[in-house]
Amino acid sequence: MIRARDVLRLLPVYIFLYAPMAALVAFSFNDSKFSTAWKGFTWKWYARLASNTQLMDAALNSLTIAVLAASIATILGVLLAVVLFRYRFRGRKFMQSWLFVIMMSPDIVLGISLLLLFVLAGIRPGFLPLLAGHVTFCIPFVVATVHSRLKGFDPHVIEAAEDLGASEYQTFRNVILPMTMPAVVAGWLLSFTLSMDDVIISFFLTGPDYEILPLQIYSMVKMGVKPDVNALSAIMIGVTVCLVFASQLLMRKPK
Amino acid sequence: MNTHDRFRFLSIGGGMVWLAVFGLLPGLLMLGTSFLARHEAELIEVRFSLEGYRTIIDPIFLKILGNSLYLAVGTTLICLLAAYPFAYALARMGNRCKRVLLMLVMIPFWTNSLVRTYALVFMLKTKGVISALLVWLGVTPRPVSFMYTEAAVFIGLTYTLLPFMILPLYTAIEKMDGKLVEAARDLGAGSWRTFFHVTLPLTMPGIVAGCMMVFLPALGMFFVPDMLGGGKHLLVGNFIKNQFLVARDWPAGAAAGVVLTLLMLALMYMQGISRGRAGKKRGARP
Questions:
Q1: Domain membership of residue B172 as a residue range
Q2: Number of domains forming the structure of chain A
Q3: Using one digit for the tens of pLDDT, what is the confidence trace for A9-58?
């Protein structure tokens, strides 16, 4: 039951959101080098992209960072969520607020302060600083995802496990983890997307010997538009679409 | 230590150490650096100084700050005005359509913001889509470029941040009890009155959250004015970036970062207040 008034409210926003992305994808198939007028359909920019080792290396680096950061952030985030949910300890409130501060901090502040940390520690920007930075900004999102699922739990199940003599680890491994699994997977996917998405924090933490996709695109665009960058951007949009679909499917069946 | 305590110790400890080293320590370092002196060769000198803060109360910085506040506030208002009716219509839809339509908001939300900013170039440049459309419609005889203007920066910031406004608004509007709107109507309130006295106060937490989600990143997204504004319209983000990487004046960059953090904390505090108020109001309802 879509009314005319709703269409009027919804459609302009969708057009605004999608027209530029659609144009970018369309131009990535355009035969013209200067991507102005339509000169016919071609795959050649994708072929050229595949032979552009610099871009392919950057893509591989981005994926490596995203997979590693998502995995580490998920492990730490799940532990933190369980800790915050189950235990009462000193500094718990502080930890909770600090996670919130990290989540809300402007990217530029997080990026700069991490840059300071690494420079003062004598570590050159590159792989490790980048990974540490990505893990740090992903953790709060994993904690939030998992924590909200834990709150929906029946606490008696955990009590039952404890009454039956399960150790803390056994309770975690056999009761809490299986029950929170969808949230754990959602947290991982969220972290992966956040990591692939980030521009500002990576800008400060990565060096010339470890190029990643968004920054590679940034420097290429500054030199002028190149058609293989269009193909690459179109692929990145496509991957995001798939990831959003996947995460929606996961959230759909919560139990 | 038995195994019981070991798991507990490791899980609390692991997270705490990570947050302390990569969450808390960098923030403290930034705060510390903002009070140090600048050193030509070694970047900073360990000597208490307010130079960093003196640099940022300079008229040049204040002009940049004013300009970026203008861009950020403007972007926030545009996003709010565009997103509210949209989120309202979306939240009141039938369940099946809603799911798909909401996902269509999530896709741009999760797409790399640099890629999306780059996509805008195809719309705005001289031989871009909008220009071609205007020529085709006969509005202008010759192709026009919208790049490197203030409008382009506004469009760019709005484009990247609009989903950040839509989603909190959507959540707030969906949570709102529709019966209250009906009740207001039954009691004889007109649509405007219902909106200002019922809908707007009830969705205030979503409005505040959305405005924060747009305003704060809008101050820091240095690549949008770089790519679309041609570097003419600086944001606080560009200033901080340049202080660190170009001017090599770390204390000033750190001081600007501290100011931005304080701004965020103030906004969070205000959000807490508005949320607390909304909570009280809900609590007061029988």
A1: 51-236
A2: 1
A3: 899 999 999 999 999 998 888 887 665 667 778 888 898 888 888 888 99
This prediction's pTM: 0.88
Chains A, B: CB contacts within 8 A come to 226
Nearest chain A Cα distance for residue B223, angstroms: 8
What DSSP line would sit under B197-229, residue for residue? Answer: IIIHHHTHHHHHHHHHHHHHHHHH-THHHHHHS
Tokens (6 digits) for B227 = 């790519």
Residue range A83-105: average pLDDT? 87
Query: Scanning the structure block, which residue is given the tokens 């269409």?
Result: A7
Q: What is the CATH number of the domain that holds A67?
A: 1.10.3720.10
Look at residue B156 and tell me if it is in a domain: yes
Q: Read off the amino acid at residue A27.
A: F
A9 and B121 in contact by Cβ < 8 A? Answer: no
Q: Where are the alpha helices (DSSP H) in chain B?
A: 3-18, 25-34, 51-56, 59-91, 95-110, 113-124, 129-137, 150-175, 178-186, 191-194, 200-202, 204-220, 223-228, 236-245, 250-284
Q: What is the total count of domains within chain B?
A: 1
Convert the pLDDT of each residue in A242-254 to its tens digit.
888 887 777 665 4
Collect all residues of chain B within an 8 Å Cβ-Cβ radius of residue A214: 112, 114-115
The CATH number for B55's domain is 1.10.3720.10
Residue A23 lies inside a defined structural domain of this protein: no
> Does a structural domain hold residue B274?
no
pLDDT of B277 reads 56
Which pLDDT score, from 0 to 100, does residue A251 have? Answer: 67
Q: Quick check: B103 and A24 CB within 8 A?
A: no
Contacts of B52 in chain A (CB under 8 A): none
pLDDT of A237 above 60 = yes
Chain B residue nearest residue A248, CA to CA: B103
CA distances from B74 to A206, B61, B116 (A): 32, 19, 20
Does a structural domain hold residue B103? Answer: yes
Q: Which residues pair with A41 in a beta bridge?
A: A30
Token pair listed for B57: 């109360």
Of B5, B65, B67, B82, which is closest to residue B252 (Cα–Cα)?
B65
Give the residue ranges of chain B where pLDDT is below 70: 1-4, 273-286
